[in-house]
Design brief:
It contains 24 helices and 14 strands. The protein is α/β, with parallel strands linked by helices.
Length: 534
């Protein structure tokens, strides 16, 4: 599997333009030091090159003493040296390495000494950011991974020393707040037994409740109903819930969610356990065996106080936000046009993936246009809701990207790339539907003999059946890659559907190709299809 992923990454990076920039962002957190390395290029967006984490626990003992431990500081410097070597190997220029320190270092009395040691031994200049700045960077990251709409969302990030709360919609931010209730801080202050006793749980609940008063009041006034969580704690919770429910544990959980009921099942199962038994729990990071205890209590309180039914998971957070903010400032500083951040991240992500795969944009956009016309015209027959229209558009745009790997079986390659291309703003289920529709745009139609298709739920199978049938027809009508069919309309009479085409010139090849591909749509809709050119 590693080889296949590496092969895909190779295909997605070869042939890129020279107008590209590599940036490394280092986050010196309370529990761990992280680095992400990305490449940004015009039209192809931001592609992750590498990421690394080292559980330094720089905040160990410093929560109460306000002094960074000497051993932890030395371990941190050693980790940073390794990070810089890795960044250099990936071709990141020293001036494009950014490093921010958060809660534990921000509060330490000896932070100046530590920052000076880092500068002297590594050459790295670390910037200590405020809690509000940390919240702002998290917001930059999350809104580029999860689609934020007109209604307000609560965004929260559980760190070791602090938890950031953001309330925002697609028009802007209403709250940026950082509270000193991170899991390492709370563990050090409130957890004294293993397993934790009821009295300590009560103390933690009361403390969390008091610290979240202002955020809860703001959320209530803005009628917040959804939360987005970005942190290792939230991802661990999501993975454990997936494991408990028998769902596949995918590398990326972006846009997946867990419900209040699912969380409560996990909470009541895990909280009575001691650390030895917690360590055996599938999905729980070994380094979070202790810290997950205050983390679970915090998430339980967030569900209760904000009256939420589900929490969405974001893969993007502080580090990604640091990169996006850095690139924004860099382009502004160079006099170039400012990046527009209030964008449709789903559409942008699809187009970036298409560009990375050297797609035929004109052909793909024309197929998408024809597919949408068919979707709208056939609505009285397929009865699919509007959200599926958008998924059809994106599947149509990406249906041929597998040709970048090989023309042979390119429909299967398209499916693989879509599933592993890290599309942003989509739930895992939506990505699966897009990938399946692209996979069935040619050759054999959907079948329960295909393992991945067979795992879909009945409503999802029905959607894939209809959308793939539409895409097959649309693809046939653009068989010559010459954008010949300018428009189409549909009439439905009894058991017959007639497609009326408006071509620019003789559409023999398009009619021939569509006739070869129409049978699946006829099967799905239980009607015959006649193709007529005016």
């Amino acid at each position: 599997m590693y080889f296949v992923s590496a092969l895909l990454n190779h295909f997605l990076t070869i042939g890129m333009t020279t107008e590209k920039l590599r940036v490394a962002a280092i986050d010196l957190g309370t529990n761990s030091f992280h680095m992400i390395i990305v490449e940004e290029s015009r039209g192809k967006g931001i592609v992750e090159i590498d990421r690394v984490k080292n559980m330094i626990c720089i905040g160990r003992g410093s929560i109460s003493t306000k002094m960074l431990d000497e051993e932890a500081m030395q371990s941190g410097i050693a980790a940073l040296k390794n990070f810089l070597v890795l960044a250099a190997h990936h071709g990141v220029a020293p001036e494009n390495i950014i490093a921010f320190a958060t809660s534990a270092i921000r509060e330490a009395k000896n932070r100046i000494d530590f920052l000076r040691m880092i500068r002297e031994e590594t050459g790295l200049k670390v910037r200590v950011i405020s809690g509000r700045e940390e919240a702002e960077f998290i917001y930059y990251g999350v809104r580029n991974a999860v689609k934020i709409g007109e209604t307000y969302d609560l965004i929260f990030d559980i760190g070791g020393g602090s938890v950031e709360f953001i309330i925002a919609n697609n028009k802007g931010v209403q709250l940026l707040e950082s509270r000193k209730i991170g899991v390492a801080r709370m563990y050090e202050r409130f957890v004294f037994t293993d397993p934790i006793v009821r009295l300590d749980i009560k103390m933690l609940e009361q403390f969390f409740s008091a610290e979240m008063v202002s955020a809860v009041a703001k959320a209530s006034g803005l009628k917040v109903t959804r939360a987005i969580a970005s942190s290792g704690t939230a991802q661990n919770i999501a993975r454990m819930i997936c494991s408990m429910n028998g769902r596949s544990n995918k590398a990326s959980l972006n846009n997946s969610f867990f419900t209040r009921k699912e969380f409560q099942t996990l909470y009541t199962t895990l909280m009575p356990l001691g650390s030895v038994d917690r360590r055996k729990f599938t999905g729980l990071d070994a380094n979070r065996v202790d810290l997950i205890v205050p983390g679970l209590i915090l998430v339980d309180m967030i569900f209760r106080l904000f009256n939420l039914n589900e929490i969405v998971v974001s893969d993007y957070a502080l580090r990604e936000g640091m990169v996006l903010h850095y690139l924004k400032d860099r382009f502004n500083g160079s006099g170039e046009q400012e990046h527009e951040f209030e964008i449709d991240i789903r559409q942008e992500s699809v187009y970036e993936l298409g560009c990375r795969c050297d797609w035929n944009r004109k052909h793909s956009e024309h197929v998408a246009g024809l597919a949408l016309q068919l979707f709208d015209s056939l609505a009285p027959l397929h009865h699919l809701e509007t959200p599926y229209r958008e998924l059809l558009e994106y599947a149509s745009l990406l249906h041929n990207i597998g040709s970048f790997i090989s023309i042979s079986s390119h429909h299967k390659h398209s499916q693989y790339i879509i599933l592993n291309g890290e599309l942003r703003g989509f739930s895992p289920t939506e990505i699966e539907i897009i990938a399946h529709v692209a996979r069935y745009h040619r050759k054999s139609p959907p079948s329960d003999k295909h393992a991945a298709y067979n795992l879909l739920k009945p409503p999802q199978k029905r959607a894939v059946d209809v959308l793939s049938g539409i895409l097959r027809l649309a693809n046939g009508l653009e068989r010559g890659h010459r954008q010949n069919i300018q428009n189409l309309s549909v009439t439905i009479k009894g058991s017959v559907i007639t497609l009326h085409l408006k071509p620019r010139f003789e559409p023999d090849i398009e009619i021939w190709a569509a006739a070869q591909l129409k049978s699946w749509m006829e099967t799905v809709l239980k009607k015959s299809i006649i193709i007529d050119a005016a």
